[in-house]
Amino acid sequence: DLDEGKLSYPLTVCCHRDPTAENIIMGIFRQASEGSLAVNVKEQILDLYRRTGALQETWEMIEHLKKSTETALSRFESITDERNPDFRALVNLLGDVSRPLQELNKRGDD
Predict the structure, then answer these.
(1) Long-range contacts for 35-41 (Cβ within 8 Å, ≥24 apart)?
(2) Whole-model pTM?
């Protein structure tokens, strides 16, 4: 998504939380030519995501949506008295996202 300049949930959260990060990211997208962004530029954007908590908030949203979907599915299965293992497997697959790593101390003082 970064290479294509697509807006994503973590990008939106990051820009909403930090106007300076928004200016940096939008400047990168405006200057980017067609093709892939350089790895160091992607790392810079990911660092902004981490610093603003956008990755953590995205993970929390995924967890919330997974739980809500599982609850709704359980209710539906209860009403219809029929299990839906395929949909349940899809929900588990889409919700199988690792929690973001905690921010490491950049100076190495840990």
Answers:
(1) 35/3, 36/3, 37/2, 37/3
(2) 0.77
Helical segments of 6-105, H only: 9-17, 19-31, 39-52, 54-80, 85-94
Tens digit of each residue's pLDDT (9 = 90 or more) over 44-63 = 999 999 999 999 999 999 99
- Residue-wise pLDDT tens digits, 11-28: 999 999 999 999 999 999
pLDDT at 106: 41
> What are the Cα distances from residue 49, in Å, to 6, 22, 33?
15, 10, 22
Name the burial class of residue 31, with classes exposed (0-12), middle (13-18) and buried (19+) by CB atoms within 10 angstroms of its CB: exposed
Distance, in Å, from the CA atom of 93 to the CA atom of 87, rounded to the nearest integer, reads 10
Report d(CA 34, CA 43) in Å as an integer: 18
What six digits make up the tokens of 36? 């892939």
Task: Please name the residues in contact with 49: beta carbons below 8 A apart, sequence gap of 6 or more.
Answer: 10, 11, 14, 55
